[in-house]
Amino acid sequence: MATSLILFNKPYGVQSQFRDDNGNAHTTLAPYFTDKSLRIAGRLDATSEGLLILTNDGQVNKAITQPPRATQFKNSNKQGKTYLVQVEGLVSAAQLAELSGGVMLKDGKTLPAVAKVVAEAELPIQLWQRNPPIRERKNIPTSWLMLTIYEGKNRQVRRMTAHVGLPCLRLIRWSVAGFELGELGVGKFVHVHLTNEDCRRLGITH
């Protein structure tokens, strides 16, 4: 069976699963994909948007989803996951430094991350209208962060920004392990052919 790698721009409100086991109101991936061999390489919360990778190759799935141990972090081939994060408030240098250095959460300290403030006009994508729109409060500004993490704790990005006093309003995953969302429309997907460079980056043989 040929390797299938799919990049999907997951809309807000869609669960990263094919079956609704809990009777939730959220839509699943079933309306978008019929190939039963596909597995999700790194889940994305229903209330988060952006890049979701699906593949039928277990080796590829493991390379993308298995985070490096802290002792292996500096030598890891993984390029991490980058999120575009709209937060409430203005971001201070101290908050950026805390996000970058690692945040102590209930389930342990996060690995060092890459965090920077970006103007909305400098985001790498053209933002689309979210339904429902984010909550807005008068007299409270919002900011955008580009945050790259190298692990996958539950709701990690939201918890990190909340910990430093920056409640998350909108969360869009831009890239995973070197694969980028690009100009992919909401609810659209594209099949990707793995190049030799992709395989080297993921540390797999094909």
List the helices and strands and how they pair.
Elements: E1 5-10, E2 39-40, E3 49-55, H1 58-65, E4 81-88, H2 93-101, E5 104-105, E6 108-109, E7 114-118, E8 142-149, H3 156-163, E9 168-176, E10 179-180, E11 189-192, H4 196-202
Parallel strand pairs: 3-9
Antiparallel strand pairs: 1-3, 1-11, 2-3, 4-8, 4-9, 5-6, 7-8, 9-10
Explain what this protein looks like in three dimensions:
It is a single chain. By secondary structure, the chain is α+β, with helices and mostly antiparallel strands. The chain has helices at 58-65, 93-101, 156-163, 196-202, and strands at 5-10, 39-40, 49-55, 81-88, 104-105, 108-109, 114-118, 142-149, 168-176, 179-180, 189-192. The chain has one domain: Alpha-L RNA-binding motif (Alpha-Beta Plaits). The protein is 16% helix and 27% strand. The strands form two sheets. Strands 1, 2, 3, 4, 7, 8, 9, 10 and 11 form a nine-stranded mixed beta sheet that branches. A two-stranded antiparallel ribbon has the order 5-6. The chain is globular and about 50 Å long.
